[in-house]
Amino acid sequence: MNRHISVRSTAFAVATAISTAFAVPAFAQDVPAGYPADYADLIAKAKKEGTVSIYTSTDAAQSQKLQDGFTKKYGIKIAYNDLGTNGAYNQVISEAAAGQTTADLVWSSAMDLQMTLVQDGYASEYASPEAANLPVWANYKNTLFATTVEPIGVIYNTKALPEDKLPKTYADMITFLKENKSTLQGKVATFDPEKSGSGFLHHSNDARNRKDFWDLAKAMGDDGAKIYSSSGGMKETVVSGENVIAINIIGSYALAWVKESPNLGVHFATDYTPAFSRLALITKDAPHANAAKLFVDFMLSAEGQSLLAEGGLPSVREDVTAGLNVKTLNERVGGGLKPIAVDEGILEYMDQMKRVQFLNDWKAALGR
């Protein structure tokens, strides 16, 4: 009798050992190479949470491959809320004030607004295992991560404006607007910095980095420039011929648009092409904090970055071969790529007095 029990016990122990041996790799195989050994615990907790809520300004179509890849890999649902730059910022503040934080992650192209959320205590720190693979300028104290690098450029109507007539440099653009005032009158478009978070970032970044920015603004004003709240709105007017050229638009969008619109061209200055990034932060009281960390890591990984690049959002990493990465993008725009660093500098015009002064100077330059 004892012998039978012993045999059964041994068989049970062996079966348990085999079962355990196969169970452990089920978690281990989800852990990317080079990640901490206990990362499997984060994955398990994130899966238990089951969902991650994202407030964003990125069109779902552009991030769909990223979303699908994440859900397929981890089985975690994504509540994707495209609220726009200003909408995402305001919603986070409102929810925090009410003690009802819903967003786990804020992913926005308004770099200055994102940095403001960090400085005002709405973000949490997270040392992502992928941080080491980012450029130094792309990580702010493990609270704010650049996930893309997107050029700011020009779109133009190819039927109204031949490519060889386009200005080569930033300074040339000012001269171009002045010398072609009669033909460009009422046919120049640009962002409205008062209504668009992205527009304010683009223009104020130029003001920080170019002494001749206000010369450009005045030249646009003299040409009767019209202002818009979105790149998409400007695109439609340039395609139709209502406008000949649109300045300081989102170049990553434009690179995709020109493939679909034969009379639309995209252009970048060879000496100075600023580039913004869509920044990701995890909210301070994220209800699904583990899922948020997992999503950030996936976004920054070579796999996630490839999926973003395939969706038309150039990768901030150099080792991604899908679409454009930070290195090949620089080649595409002519060698003058100037990524906006993720640091306190982007807050210069977030000071209320400076912001008001900037907008007043802008209106004066455009003759508003």
TrEMBL record:
Domain of life: Bacteria
GO cellular component, one term: outer membrane-bounded periplasmic space
Signal peptide location: 1-28
Family annotation (Pfam families): SBP_bac_8
Organism this protein belongs to: Rhizobium leguminosarum
InterPro entries per record: SBP
Keywords: Periplasm, Signal
Protein name: Iron(III) transport system substrate-binding protein
